[in-house]
Amino acid sequence: MYIIPAVDVLDQKIVRLREGDYNQVTTYQASLEEQIELYQSNGTEYVHIIDLNGAKGDFSNQKFIFDIIKKTDMKVQYGGGVRSIEKVKELIDSGIHRVIVGTQAITNPNFLEELGKEICGKTKCSDQVVVAIDVLDEVIKYSGWMESSPIKLMDYVDRCLQLGFFRFLCTDINKDGKLGGAGLELYKKLLAHSPFIKLIASGGISSMNDIEELNEYKIESCVVGKAIYENRISIDEIKNWNLQMLSTI
How far is CA 108 from CA 7, 24, 69, 103, 105, in A? Predict the structure, then answer.
């Protein structure tokens, strides 16, 4: 399991939200450029960047973020307000390694099918497109976690798989931003239902002990944000863990 450091950007600042609530914001002093450089200089291959303005339909952050992304050689996993096939294609063409789709995939029943026809076969879909599943008490949330979907969680996973999308970024909202441990029960249910999905775990990771617990299951990677900024997990620990994981492949 690979650790991917996370950077959430709101109004051009690095922040973390608690349970996805824009009224519960912690702002950090490091700039986006400094943080990406820190990860890159320590040998981290991937970085996970979320445009929180974009998630609400406000794209004032986008140029700022992309001017910085263009300077890095890291593989960027990017999400926040990706609401059209044209945007997915634009992001991939601009060098984004993986594009995260969430709201549009849930609210537009034809979006994933059309996206698959436009840009990918089954393997490529998994490589370049990540389907976000943001879950609160097994209810799927979207639009910056402000809206609830009537679609049942496992039914949604099944539909995505049928369309050739099998890499999922799953965030347990109950855990997010609390540093109280990862949503193991949620991930176990997902993997029991669909053992072959490529699962990226997100939310609540507070220590290397949490990482070790996640690593016991077939989880491809995990996203770590607040634990880094609160000095619960060091950049060196991430580097050493990832090197160890790569050496076992």
Answer: 27, 29, 29, 8, 6
